[in-house]
Design a protein that fits this description.
The complex is a heterodimer. Chain A is an alpha+beta fold. In chain A, 57% of the residues lie in helices and 17% in strands. Chain A folds into two domains: 2-44 and 253-381, no CATH class; 60-234, no CATH class. The longest helix of chain A is centred in the C-terminal third of the chain and has 44 residues, at 241-284. In chain B, the strands form two sheets. Chain B has a six-stranded mixed sheet. Classes of the chains: A alpha+beta, B alpha/beta. Bound molecules: adenosine-5'-triphosphate (ATP) and magnesium ion (MG).
Chain lengths: 385, 229
């Protein structure tokens, strides 16, 4: 009891010093938590890409299209359950700052292949029936205040012109981590317009999405698809959706590893700073520890006092950091939704935050604890002159 | 008559040296003396003569290189570190030049400190603390922090802390060294009181001849050797 009282009072003896140390730990934990969340979400996104979905694109490059005629040939391949296709549209809403991903897709097969985009049956039917129909994710719709039936105009970049869509559905994600900021519309609208304006660009698709019957067949089917179109005008490259996404983000993976390292570096830095502060504090209090020892208190008591103070300060910093992580994550989710459509802090991250704070407190106290516990009384007094 | 009772403190042939790098600095050489129970001894001598060192050896917070230190019949040179801590808590009260109170604890809590290592109940501790604080005349300052007390008052709190476990001997290293004349007088008469009314044995290091006058015996330490006056 007495030890706890002494720890608490010691911890707040130098108000400014304690405040700054707590602030430092809190900021480090906040940074650690946010960086970890970022990395975690990225890997989650890659992991969640379905193992039963393949993506076929032009073997030369993603910017070259494939003929629509491939669809039926792909469908005939053993192990293929569903084929859908689409084009990256790259339309701009209002101006470049308002970025969100938008695609032209074949509605029925696309929705079948992506059950994580949940629409009510009514909305689904309306979308499939309307050539100008479009569907937006819940977050995206909320951001711009779109309602069902609204007219949405995108300025084409890859496909020039002003494109008008009617919002027929607002999907929500089946999982919390599902991206709710996408926008997709009826591929027919794109194709018909191309037929009229630029016929050579008609009947071309950017990529096929293939559902296989069993995940084990993924490699086999990929091979079969690419073999089918070998030596044709447009050879294909088929890979799992996961590999496809990774090829987009292989650069990003390096960045993610760097971010991960940075998150630990942040903790190490605060550890060193806190250790220095604790060593300084303990040095100032050596005469007090010597006095306690004189009165008969043992090395264990002194160790407990030094260790406890360090851990209390670090844990307060940790808890403050965790408390700030949630509003910060919320801010990121709302203000930076084009980059981070989902930015939710997991329970695991909270535990890791607190663990990191504890480690900071423990490591920072190792040297002063050892010093306080082992210093002889005579030497302890010598230090005040 | 004097031989019937063994002395409170018996020091035989102790020596102590410090090592500074490869150099050995002898501080005490073959010191021998006794102090009877209820005696008030002053230890004087020039700075660096080893007074604090000697006091620390008697109080069991430093180890002699050789010799015997028997206090109340116990040879403390044979005790382990842990035994020594327990022995100190039960037998020695400490008074320091700079009081050495814990700044984050009130006068009451500072005095209560040594009792936390005893099996006394909360209520018993409170009774003891209040009693000794009234002995030193600070019953009305129990809830003050050291920073809210004058130097003399802080030293009185320190004395209360030293006597709360009712130890047989008190050691004081320049207890008036940091006080003005009037406060020093207060502290000295308080110590005198502890000897006469409570039968404590006191060993006090001092530079102040007027402080030494209060003592029954004055020992001089010079160049590691003791000479009584
Ligand atoms: N831990 C130590 N290491 C090395 N030398 C020491 C140590 N402690 C004391 N000494 C030396 O021992 C000698 C005696 O020191 P001590 O503190 O006992 O003197 P003192 O008589 O109390 O002096 P003062 O009146 O100034 O307090 C001094 O020369 C001091 O430098
Ligand atoms: Mg001294």
């Amino acid at each position: 009891m007495f030890i706890i009282k002494l720890i608490i009072r010691n911890a707040f003896r130098h108000k400014l010093r304690s405040f700054l140390t707590i602030l430092g730990v809190a900021i480090a934990i906040l940074a650690f938590g946010l960086l970890r969340t970022l990395v975690g979400l990225w890997y989650l996104g890659v992991e969640q890409s379905s193992a039963t979905r393949l993506v076929t694109r032009n073997a030369i490059s993603l910017v070259f299209p494939l003929p629509i005629s491939y669809k039926d040939r792909i469908r005939q391949i053993q192990g293929v359950k569903e084929v859908s296709f689409g084009n990256w549209f790259g339309g701009v809403y209002i101006d470049e700052k308002h970025f969100f991903p938008n695609f032209a897709v074949e509605p029925r097969s696309y929705l079948d292949l992506y059950p994580e985009f949940v629409l009510s049956p009514g909305e689904r039917d309306a979308f499939i029936r309307d050539r100008r129909g479009a569907v937006a994710g819940r977050k995206l719709a909320a951001k711009y205040g779109w309602k069902i039936g609204d007219m949405i105009t995108l300025k084409g970049t890859i496909f020039p012109g002003q494109w008008e869509f009617v919002l027929r559905g607002i999907y929500h994600g089946a999982q919390k981590s599902t991206d709710e900021t996408q926008f997709f519309f009826n591929w027919e609208y794109l194709n018909e317009t191309m037929k009229r304006t630029t016929p050579r660009r008609a009947d071309q698709v950017g990529f096929y999405m293939i559902g296989v019957t069993k995940p084990e067949l993924a490699a086999e089917v990929s091979q079969a698809v690419d073999d089918t179109f070998r030596n044709s005008l447009a050879e294909t490259l088929t890979e799992t959706e996961k590999a496809f996404q990774l090829s987009f983000v292989s650069m990003t993976e390096a960045i993610m590893i760097a971010i991960k390292i940075v998150s630990y570096v942040v903790i190490v830095i605060i550890m060193v700073v806190a250790a220095n502060t604790m060593a300084m504090t303990a040095r100032e209090r050596m005469a007090e520890y010597a006095t306690l020892k004189t009165l008969g208190f043992g090395a264990g008591h002194i160790a407990g006092i030094v260790f406890g103070e360090s851990v209390v300060i670090a844990m307060i910093g940790g808890v403050v950091g965790v408390l700030f992580t949630f509003p910060a994550a919320h801010w990121i989710e709302t203000e930076l939704s084009q980059f981070f459509p989902v930015f939710s802090v997991s329970t695991l991250t909270v535990y890791l935050d607190l663990l990191a704070a504890l480690v900071v407190g423990v490591v920072a106290s190792i040297f002063p604890t050892w010093r306080g516990a082992t210093i002889s009384i005579a030497e302890g007094f010598r230090r005040i002159g | 008559m004097a031989n019937e009772k063994p002395p409170m403190v018996e020091i035989k042939d102790i020596s102590k040296s410090y090592r500074r790098g490869s150099q050995i600095i002898p501080v005490l050489q073959g010191i021998t003396f006794d102090i009877a129970e209820g005696e008030f001894m002053a230890l004087m001598g020039p700075s660096g003569s080893g007074k604090s060192t000697l006091l620390n050896l008697i109080a069991g917070i430093d180890k002699a290189d050789a010799g015997i230190i028997r206090i109340g019949g116990v040879d403390i040179t044979t005790l382990t570190e842990a035994e020594l801590a327990g022995w100190r808590a039960a037998n020695v009260g400490f008074i320091f030049q700079f009081y050495n109170l814990m700044p984050v604890l009130t006068a009451f809590e500072n005095v209560e400190l040594p009792l936390l290592l005893t099996p006394l109940s909360r209520k018993e501790r409170r009774d003891h603390v209040e009693m000794v604080l009234s002995v030193v005349g600070l019953a009305d300052r129990m809830d003050h922090y050291p920073s809210q007390l004058s130097g003399g008052q802080q030293q009185r709190v320190a004395i209360a802390r030293a006597i709360v476990t009712d130890p047989a001997i008190l050691v004081a290293d320049e207890p008036t060294g940091d006080l003005d004349r009037a406060s020093a007088e207060d502290i000295l008469s308080l110590m005198d009181n502890l000897v006469h009314r409570f039968g404590k044995t006191i060993i006090m290091v001092t530079h102040d001849p007027r402080a030494a006058e209060k003592a029954h015996i004055i020992q001089h330490l010079e160049k590691g050797v003791l000479s009584a006056s």
